[in-house]
């Protein structure tokens, strides 16, 4: 179907205003690239992910030997006035000590648990980072289309104000020659004053949306590529809400992270119980000691042995820590159930949003055409005296309302398709690139 002329004029007007500004409009992918390098939330997620990965080498270190070298040297002054050996006098001398200590854990149950715990921590961190990356994709799209939507609102508000202004001027002229009553002038003036206020509100909302986008990119991005007038309304693939739900329950990153958190809490219980287990370490040491003075000596010692330790009683601390970790485990399980339910809800909301969004876009497009016809009929009736000024004002307001609703419905459809993919754990850069191809 060929686009209607008023809609074409609107799109051409928007494009012209962008061209006249002389500014380069940025695409959705360009905004995303800026957000990747500047969004504090994704930067924080990257840092947290990198920090969590260090759990593995730290757990591995528990199995490796530790080697410590210590040394000391001191200067002493000694005065002997009486000795059973008959030697007396004063002397200044040095004391030198060196020691090398090796410790190798042979059996520490907590180390094996810590290794498993580290793997669970890394799995959770990987899932949380993936969730943060998908969240960034959606936040960028939401902020981008929020700016486009608010810009549309401002353009519609300005267009409505100019149309009402022309209507007001025509009404005044008709009043001057006695064709209409003063009430028609007042009606037009009241409607014009309202459109002035609505333009101010639309400008403020646009500024707020631009500010939200700035929090992602770190810069002000006011000129954005608009959405093509025509783009494909595609049903979800597969068109089966239960299949989408099953996919989401398997690979939604937030749900995967919650599952890993349960594993992490379970291993933490095992780690606390390790406090009841014995430990066995191999220790070896070598030392050198040199003392001066009247009783100078030099000694070297080397030793190797096994250190066995069996915890018997620690004041009930270990048992308390086990009980505490069990409570944390139950909390993690409840968080997992909450995440599972939220995921199911998000899938259903987004899926139904896409399905209803397709019908809504089509219905609002037809409503736009109907309101265009209604305005033409009202204007024609006004010219021949069968319709009043109020009828024309109302028809014009309905038209601009239909334009706003139609434009917003297209943005809502796009965002719901992205939300559905995010809920299913399938949102990626290629998804955003596909949306970017609908811009110009």
Q: Choose one word for the global shape.
A: elongated
Give the tally of structural domains.
1
- Under CATH, the homologous superfamily reads Outer membrane efflux proteins (OEP)
Tally of helical runs: 11
Radius of gyration based on Cα positions: 38 Å
What is the topology, as strand order, of the major beta sheet?
Answer: 1-2-3-4
Oligomer: single chain
Overall mean pLDDT: 91
Architecture, CATH level 2? Answer: Up-down Bundle
CATH class: Mainly Alpha
What's the main sheet like?
4 strands, antiparallel
Distance between the terminal alpha carbons, to the nearest Å?
20 Å
Total number of β-strand segments? 4
Give the SSE string: HHHHEEHHHHEEHHH
Low-confidence stretches: 1-22
Name the structural class. alpha+beta
Summarize the structure.
This protein is α+β, with helices and mostly antiparallel strands. Helices cover 67% and strands 14% of the residues. Strands 1-2-3-4 form a 4-stranded antiparallel beta sheet.
Q: Top keywords for this entry?
A:
440 residues; alpha+beta; Outer membrane efflux proteins (OEP); four-stranded antiparallel β-sheet; 4 strands; 14% strand; elongated; disordered N terminus
Question: What does this molecule look like?
Answer:
The protein has 440 residues and is α+β, with helices and mostly antiparallel strands. The protein contains 11 helices and 4 strands; from the N terminus they run ααααββααααββααα. The chain has helices spanning 5-21, 28-38, 40-53, 55-61, 109-176, 182-217, 241-251, 253-273, 317-384, 389-423, 429-436; strands spanning 66-80, 89-108, 279-291, 297-309. It has a 4-stranded antiparallel β-sheet with strand order 1-2-3-4. Strand 3 and strand 4 form a beta hairpin. Helix 2 (28-38) packs across helix 5, helix 7 (241-251) packs antiparallel against helix 9 and helix 8 runs antiparallel to helix 9. The longest helix has 68 residues, at 109-176. The chain starts with a helix and ends with a helix.
